[in-house]
Every structure is written in C-alpha cells, then in structure tokens.
Amino acid sequence: MTSDFQRARVALGARLRELRTDRRLTGRQLAARLGWTQSKVSKLETGRQTATADDLLAWAGGTGHPQAAEELIIRLRSLESRSRAWRRQLAAGHRPVQDTLTVQYERSRRIRGWESSMVAGMLQTAEYARHVFTRYTDLHQSVRDTEEAVRARVRRQELLYEPGRTFHIVMWEAALRALVCPPAVLAAQLDRLAGVLGLDTVSLGIVPFGAPLGIPPANGFWLYDDRLVIAEDWHAELWLDDADSVGVYRKAWQTLSDSAVYGADAHRVIARARRALDTV
Predict the structure, then answer these.
(1) What DSSP string describes 191-241?
(2) pLDDT single digits (tens) 183-198
(3) 3-78 domain in CATH 1.10.260.40?
C-alpha cells in the first residue's frame, strides 16, 4: 500500500480516535455500543483497516457526534481521490490500469483531455502505444505486459465511434514531434491524427509553437464530465473529484483550448510535423 494512501487512512483514524476520546469512551466501550469487536475499533483508529461509509456513520452516532458524519464521509472519499502511486498501480502491469481507465471513459459522456508531451492515448496507433508502454515499463521497472496493455488501449478507442459521447482533445505541438518511437512509427501516428479530424465525435485542437499561452503547458490531464479529473505525474496519478479541483482543471483546459487551432489549421500543424520527419 502506498504511503500517500496510508497517510490519509492514518489521519482518518486519528480523527476517529479524537471523536471517541472526546466522549471519554474506551475502545471496548465503543465496540460494545456498536456491536463490533474491539480489534475493529483499534484497526480503524490506527489506519490498519479502511472504514466503510456505514462504519463512519455508526462511529459518528456511537460517539455522540452525528454532526461529524459528513466530514468523515468526505475524508473517506478523498482516500482514493488523491495521489495513486504508479508503483502500486503497476504492480500487476499496465493492463489493469487501462481497464480501470476504460470504466471512467464508459461512465462519461463528455471527455476533455490535454497532452503536452505525447499523443493522447485515445488517438494512439497500436505501434505508437507499444513504444510508450515499453518506455514507462522501463522507467518504473513494472510487469512487462505490453501487448495486453496495447490491446486494452486500442479496444477503448471504439468509444470514439459511439454516438452521444464527445471527446475534446487538445495537444501541444511538441506532442506531435516527440520521438518516443522511431520516425516511421511517428509518421504513421501523425497520419492517424489527420484522419481523426473528420470524426463527428472528436474535437482535436493543436496548440502550435509560438501561440500565445494563457498558462504554461504542464503535464497531461483528463476531465470526465464534471465529476472527475485524472492528472499524471512521473511518480503518480492524481484522481480528484472535489468541485474546487475539478473547477481549476476545467479552467486550465479551457485556457489551453483557447490557444489551440482546429480543423484545417490543425491539419496544417500536423502536416508540418509530418514533413519535419523527412529530415530526421
């Protein structure tokens, strides 16, 4: 278990202990009130067990702090709505991570994404994705399940063709030029992007080099409707579902989107990057 998750669980346990001791209850007394074992009370307070929502509601009532129930539930929801270390996520390889992301895509009707350093996963060719997964596997020394991960990513792209779901993807021109794969693979990837411009369900914007920027083009992130943001960093992903954080990323996406070009102008930027490969 990652330290970030565990620290949040320990902090929740400390708050539970505080509510209990405020009423001068022993762990044994509270366990008797709730019909639990004393060991359960101890494990929740020390962060050795993750509480359920029902556990927290019972705790708030049993300690005479019913008004604390909402606070405790928010703390519980935030346990996973924060840093998810790659070490833990990739313990079984990239395929399970792809499957988890697919669930979020399937739940969403409007998906907005920003990528500054590589082509967005939803638009990657199989060969380009293969090279990306290989490089991240080398970085994190994780299970090498590249082919399974590529198949999962490519299957998810079927959602691009489903009516009623829209994808608003913005990328920096640098993503079109980063040689994370051989030039021939990148050339085929750029041809794929040019074809995507005609899809009814996809709005693809490219921020050209030299375009005025409202904010620096930082790491990639994705907005799933207005309920969840997933932002990537080298060591972890951030899963954020509180309104304030979602609002910040929504504003960041719109600011970057305002610097992008679309349609024929985007096609010209892609073609320019494609021609540059002839000199590599």
Answers:
(1) HHHHHHTT-TTEEEEEE-TT---SS---S-EEEETTTEEEEE-SSEEEEE-
(2) 999 999 999 999 999 8
(3) yes
CATH number for 83-279: choose from 3.90.226.10, 1.10.1740.10, 3.30.870.10, 3.40.50.150.
Answer: 3.30.870.10
Q: What pLDDT does 81 receive?
A: 56
**113-122 average pLDDT score:** 97
pLDDT band at 46; cut points 50, 70, 90: very high
pLDDT reported for residue 89: 85
Task: Please answer whether residues 257 and 171 qualify as being in contact, where contact means their C-beta atoms are separated by less than 8 angstroms.
Answer: no
Give the pLDDT score at 50.
Answer: 83
Go through 238-273 and write b for each residue having 16 or more CB atoms within 10 A of its CB, e for each that does not.
bbbbeeebbeebeebbeebbebbbeeeebbebbebb
Predicted local distance difference test score (pLDDT) of residue 1: 42
Tell me how far apart the alpha carbons of residues 265 and 205 are, in angstroms, rounded to a whole number.
9
Residue at 57: amino acid letter: L
